[in-house]
Design brief:
Main location: membrane
CATH topology: Spore Coat Polysaccharide Biosynthesis Protein SpsA, Chain A
CATH class: Alpha Beta
Protein name: N-terminal domain of galactosyltransferase
Number of domains: 1
Keywords: Glycoprotein, Glycosyltransferase, Membrane, Signal-anchor, Transferase, Transmembrane, Transmembrane helix
Strand content: 15-25%
InterPro entries: Galactosyl_T (IPR003859), Galactosyl_T_C (IPR027791), Galactosyl_T_N (IPR027995), Nucleotide-diphossugar_trans (IPR029044)
Distance between the termini: 41 Å
Number of strands: 11
Helix content: 25-40%
Pathway: Protein modification; protein glycosylation
């Protein structure tokens, strides 16, 4: 597969793709059965973004000739958005379906280069280091959010992500510290390959105590994450995705 850059304008055009199986699963005929990626998207109240994301990402992923399933993990309560908890839930549900490669993606981030492969390698990868709203520059070296890839065994090793961050910010930095604590250093592809466009949206309410929680991040690693995860959920198979409704 040759790297191909996609224009931002093409992102919003109706793309043609092969219809996936119920639940948003696509099986590449020439892909080994264990080489499949779970695309896990934390979600709430972004219907327009979700439509654009699904239409574009099925097209994009099929250009890469990989097997995948898209999981939309929706928070269904009145609390502040808990992005990391939704990712933990999505990871466990994907692992239960024998997915060993986890791709965490925000619903408003869309890749612009087909060489940015949605698969896992030896180390976790920060996939969106060059986003258009930041003029395709990396805001800071330790940034590890937006879109990342990680093997399920590595995610389990660090006890997943913290469930304590309500609102925007902090959970990605906490997760990065967990990886570094276990001597796991994420990497990036070149900025040219890692280009993304961000869909316009209103900013989420910031997590008010995120800095205090970050200061205590190392103390909570073993007790805050997959081991402390508690949730009720309903799973429905939609035509383009697996919908996990979480309370």
């Amino acid at each position: 597969m040759r790297n191909r850059e996609i224009s931002v304008g093409d992102v919003f055009r109706m793309q043609h793709f092969e219809k996936p199986n119920l639940g948003g699963e696509y099986i590449q005929k020439h892909c080994l059965p264990y080489k499949k990626s779970a695309i896990i998207v934390p979600y709430r109240n972004r219907k327009h973004h979700l439509h654009t994301f699904l239409n574009y990402m099925h097209y994009f992923l099929q250009q890469q000739h990989i097997s995948y399933r898209i999981f939309i993990v929706e928070q269904n309560d009145d609390y502040s958005f808990n992005r990391a908890k939704l990712l933990n839930v999505g990871a466990l549900e994907a692992v239960n379906q024998n997915y060993t490669c986890l791709i965490f993606s925000d619903v408003d981030l869309l890749p612009l280069n087909t060489g940015n492969i949605y698969a896992c390698s030896r180390l976790p990868r920060h996939m969106c280091s060059a986003i258009d709203i930041f003029r395709f520059n990396l805001p800071y070296e330790g940034l590890f959010g937006g879109v990342i890839s990680i093997r399920s065994d590595q995610f389990k090793l660090v006890n997943g992500m913290s469930n304590e961050y309500l609102g925007w910010g902090g959970e990605d930095d906490d997760f990065y510290r967990r990886l570094k604590h276990h001597n796991i250093t994420p990497y990036r592809f070149s900025p040219q390959v890692s280009k993304y466009t961000m869909l316009t949206h209103n900013k989420e309410k910031p997590s008010e105590d995120r800095f205090e929680k970050l200061e205590r991040a190392s103390d909570r690693q073993q007790i805050d994450g997959l081991t402390s995860l508690s949730y009720n959920h309903i799973v429905k198979l939609k035509s383009l995705y697996t919908h996990i409704l979480v309370k």
